[in-house]
Amino acid sequence: DHASETLMMILNERSGPHPTVLITNLGLEKLTKLYDDRITSRMAEGTVVGVKGIDIRLSRTEVFGKAVPA
């Protein structure tokens, strides 16, 4: 589809001379389900930094002193 083709074009253009930072809350396994292997491979080349922990947006019971609905 157009979105996958455009993403692959961007990744190909930036590959090599330009550093590229991709930020996602999806792991490689989920990315592979969304995109083909070529795109996922390009996204994962280089250094992958995983950050794990609780999502404070989902775990908060109060925001600015007001209760957050469950």
Write the layout of secondary structure elements.
Blueprint: H1 2-14, H2 28-34, H3 37-44, H4 56-59, E1 62-63, E2 66-67
Antiparallel strand pairs: 1-2
Task: Provide an overview of this structure.
- This protein has a two-stranded antiparallel sheet with strand order 1-2.
- Helix content is 46%, strand content 6%.
- The protein is mainly alpha-helical and 70 residues long.
- The relative contact order is 0.13.
- It has helices at 2-14, 28-34, 37-44, 56-59; strands at residues 62-63, 66-67.
- It has 4 helices and 2 strands; from the N terminus they run ααααββ.
- Helix 1 packs parallel to helix 3.
Flag low-confidence runs. Answer: none
Roughly what percent helix? Answer: 40-55%
- What form results from the Cα inertia axes? elongated
What is the tally of beta strands? 2
Structural class: mainly alpha
Largest sheet: 2 strands, antiparallel
Strand content: 5-15%
Oligomerization status of the protein chains: single chain
**Number of helices in the DSSP assignment:** 4
Q: Give the termini distance in whole angstroms.
A: 37 Å
Tell me the strand order in the biggest sheet. Answer: 1-2
List keywords for this structure.
70 residues, mainly alpha, two-stranded antiparallel sheet, 4 helices, 2 strands, 46% helix, elongated
In short:
The chain is mainly alpha-helical and 70 residues long. It has four helices and two strands; from the N terminus they run H-H-H-H-E-E.
